[in-house]
Amino acid sequence: TYYDRTTIRMNSDYVLLKLKNRDIVKLGENHSQQENIFTMGYKRADSQQIRPLRLAVLNLMPIKITTETDFIRILSNSALQIQVEFMKIKSHTSKNTPVEHMLAFYRNFEDMKKEKYDGLIVTGAPLEFMDYEEVTYWDELQDVFNWAHSHVTSTIYVCWAAFAGLYHFYGVPK
């Protein structure tokens, strides 16, 4: 089956969030509707003759759960099946998101870098007043940027990440 990583799907009256073939969270249908998150049932997903788009999200925002929900809400309103995997960089520990959440829903870049993806979203971070080289995870972030060129079909750099990408690839200062 295609659903061996983080996938959100509807099974009759609840949303099942799976990670590595383990049930992590079951959200009531009303919760997913309140969040405006569209999910697809197992039967319908398995009957389609296409593979889901594989999308990695490197979430650099301090409040990760809110950012995840915002992106999932937007992405779920597509007619396509989308398989989302959240990426983290090893050299940075999130201070505002529970460790249990990070362990359950995020994979280290090192563990993902041999895989290929249809898309990558790199979120912003509240670092607009720091020089790039002062960012503690700048070296690893540059590795992600370089990796994306050969392992990702399309990349979206959001907010601060767009500036960081321009600086990394073209030397454009802030």
Topology:
Blueprint: E1 7-11, E2 14-19, E3 22-28, H1 29-34, H2 42-47, E4 53-58, H3 64-76, E5 82-88, H4 99-105, E6 106-108, H5 109-112, E7 117-122, H6 138-151, E8 152-157, H7 160-170
Parallel strand pairs: 4-5, 4-7, 5-6, 7-8
Antiparallel strand pairs: 1-2, 2-3
Shape: globular
Radius of gyration: 17 Å
Question: Gap between N and C termini, in Å?
Answer: 44 Å
Question: Which percent range describes the beta-strand content?
Answer: 25-35%
What's the tally of helices?
Answer: 7
The main sheet comes to:
5 strands, parallel
Please identify the structural class as seen in this structure: alpha/beta
* Secondary structure: helix percent: 25-40%
Structure write-up:
- By secondary structure, this protein is an alpha/beta fold.
- The protein is built from seven helices and eight strands; from the N terminus they run E-E-E-H-H-E-H-E-H-E-H-E-H-E-H.
- It has a five-stranded parallel β-sheet with strand order 6-5-4-7-8. A three-stranded antiparallel β-sheet has the order 1-2-3.
- Residues 1-31 have low confidence and may be disordered.
Summarize the structure.
The protein is 35% helix and 26% strand. It has helices at 29-34, 42-47, 64-76, 99-105, 109-112, 138-151, 160-170, and strands spanning 7-11, 14-19, 22-28, 53-58, 82-88, 106-108, 117-122, 152-157.
